[in-house]
Amino acid sequence: MNTYKLIAGSAAEAFHLSRKKIRLYGGGFANGKTTALVADALRIAIDYPGATMLLGRASYPKLNSTLRREFFKWCPRQWIKSFNKQENTCVLRNDTVIDFRYIEQRSSGDGESTSNLLSANYDYIGIDQIEDPEIAEHDFEQLLGRLRGNTPYAGSDATMPRTGPRMMSLTCNPTLGWVYKRLVKPLHDLKAGRFNPDLICEVDSEGLPLLRNGQPTPIIAVFEASTYENAQNLEADYIKTLEATYRGKMRDRYLLGKWVAFDGVVYDEFDEDIHVIAHDFLLKHIADLRNEGHQLAIIEGYDLGITAPSCYLLGLTDAMGITYIVDGFYERDMGIAKQAELILRSRNTYAGPELIVRDTEPEVLADPAIFRRTNASLTVGQTTATMFNENGVYMRRGNNAILNGIIKVKQHLHLRNTLMNPFTHAYGCPSLFVSDKLTWFRDEMSTWRWKRGKDDAAIDTPVDANNHAMDALKYMLTDTPPMGRIVTTTRRPLPPKLRMWNEMEAATLDNRSHRYMR
Q: Quick check: 175 and 272 in contact, CB under 8 A?
């Protein structure tokens, strides 16, 4: 039999000792989240005989390959009365029922969306990887509404609820999105002495936060565990590989399990699970659009760097106004001729037939500094824009207004509820996707932060560092991106013989012929 060990003072121990109605166990990769969730569910299953429980994951494959497999790894065989594989339901010998369900919304073909959730009431709900992109905030809210079970408690722990327990346990990797904004950040704000209206807390009869000692009382707790807290169950080379791979904020997130790395980020709407698309998958989608007759619009942005990196972005916009950033570079100490060469190569590789049908040369929306005769690299003489021009790349001034640019980018990151996402086929689609090969873009988008004031609160001025990709994006979106269009195929003209007027006597028409049309 497997043995589940708890280390005194660990996040896992605190997770199991907590009696909050909602408990979120998050943190670094391989920190034991799923195992902790299963152990918690098994404790509830035994102490509340006859309870009805739900264990869920975003999709059916994820559910069966991870959470369900982990459950049967830890659940003693002698506890199990039956398991209906078709219904995906396990019944224990004490009559506790565990439903394994996926939460992914699926289109029924008539505009409605359905999932595999049953309309049952549950005593306990456990969801693994709540941050999966298939799970939306309204799914979380609907699941909370299902916690209406009242099975009596049969254990000996006086701290446990007498019925129910009507608890929800969640696991999550540190990531942006609704999980961070709705569940995690309000607790971070409370710890910092700021009240966030999204905080899930006890309320009075009027729906206002119930204060104790002047503070609201959360009914949610978040436990952040690093990968190192589960080191006793991991091979040493696994941790060494992670240490060699992740640096800076990525190390804070994926090894140390810190959500704090996200506090105060400028683009808190950015969610890698939504906005970042696998490069090959993105190119296939673009090829499919072209095959369907879409002519995509080219959009480019550029930020000049001398000792700092220069950054270039190439995007394509479809007829729905969705921009796909497919290529670019982020390099320092690179001459203008080399940069121009890379820009032209990028266009030839990714812009495809759109370059051929243009009436004018494409223009890169660029850093206004490159149009001055005096800048960090030039005392007098040609402007940087002129040097690009001589190398076949034409530049146009981008808008350098910082807050205006940030607002435009936020609008593109915002989910449009009336638009279907071309990758998930669910409603709720941003106007901006980016290839996963542009890792430097993802890193800046996830970590660019607002400056802090005297009270440590964010102010409306972003930190002017490590923002070269963000500046290129701001310039790229100076104007509303040109819309792509759907090009209809032109039919060949009919031969002159068939375009001549021919009169026929009515009597000669055969109304019985299948070719005759009224």
A: yes
Q: Is the pLDDT of residue 492 over 60?
A: no
Share of the chain above pLDDT 70, in %: 85
H or E stretch covering 35:
helix 33-47
Residue 288 in domain: yes
> DSSP letters of 233-276?
GS-HHHHHHHHHH--HHHHHHHTS--GGGGTTBS-TT--HHHHE
Residue 34 sits in the same domain as residue 68: yes
C-alpha to C-alpha distance for 437 and 276, rounded to whole angstroms: 9
The answer on 364 and 252 residing in a single domain is no
Domain shared by 256 and 279, yes or no? no
Q: 294-295 and 394-397 as β-strands: parallel, antiparallel, unpaired?
A: unpaired
| Among candidate residues 101, 125, 126, the one with its CA nearest the CA of residue 115 | 101
pLDDT at residue number 508: 47
Asked whether residue 478 is domain-assigned, the answer is: yes
pLDDT, tens digit (0-9, with 9 covering 90-100), for 409-426? 999 999 998 999 999 898
Q: Give me the number of domains the chain comprises.
A: 2
Q: Are residues 45 and 168 in the same domain?
A: yes
Q: Is residue 501 in some structural domain?
A: no
- Structural domain boundaries enclosing 236: 11-261
Compute how many other C-beta atoms are within 10 angstroms of the C-beta atom of residue 182: 17
Q: What is the pLDDT of residues 442-469, one digit of tens each?
A: 878 877 888 877 655 567 788 888 899 9
Looking at the structure, tell me whether residues 138 and 101 fall in a common domain: yes
How far apart CA 472 and CA 302 sit, in angstroms, is 5
Residues 257 and 285 in one domain: no
What distances in angstroms separate CA 279 from CA 276, 293, 350, 434, 437, one per listed residue? Answer: 9, 22, 12, 8, 6
Domain boundary among 240, 261, 282: 261
CB of 398 within 8 A of CB of 365?
yes
Residues 462 and 295 sit within 8 Å (Cβ to Cβ)? no
* DSSP3 helix / strand / coil % (the chain, rounded to 5): 35, 25, 45
Who's near 122: CB < 8 A, 6+ residues apart? 52, 53, 54, 99, 146, 147, 148, 149
Half-sphere exposure at residue 155, Cβ-oriented, CA atoms within 13 angstroms: 17
pLDDT of residue 379: 47
Up-side HSE of residue 271: CA atoms within 13 Å toward CB?
21
Least confident piece of the model among 66-70, 104-108, 282-286, 304-308: 104-108
CATH number at residue 190: 3.40.50.300
Give a yes or no: residue 287 inside a domain. Answer: yes
CA–CA dist 180, 274 (Å, integer):
14
- CA distances, 113 to each of 146, 225, 317, 427 (Å): 19, 35, 28, 10
